[in-house]
Amino acid sequence: MPPKQIVERKSELAKLEALDCGKPLDEAAWDMDDVAGCFEYYADLAEALDKKQKIPISLPMDTFKCHALKEPIGVVGLITPWNYPLLMAVWKVAPALAAGCTAILKPSELASVTCLELADICKEVGLPPGVLNILTGLGSEAGAPLASHPLIDKIAFTGSTETGRKIMTAAAQVVKPVSLELGGKSPIIVFEDVDLDKAAEWTNFGCFWTNGQICSATSRLLVHESISVEFLDKLVAWIKGMKISDPLEEGCRLGPVVSEGQYNKIKKFISTAETEGARVLCGGGRPEHLKKGFFIEPTIITNVDTSMQIWREEVFGPVLCVKTFRTEDEAVELANDTQYGLAAAVISNDRERCNRIAEEFQAGIVWVNCSQPCFCQAPWGGTKRSGFGRELGEWGLDNYLSVKQVTEYISNEPWGWYTSPSKL
Question: Where is the Aldehyde dehydrogenase domain (predicted)?
Answer without folding.
Answer: 5-406
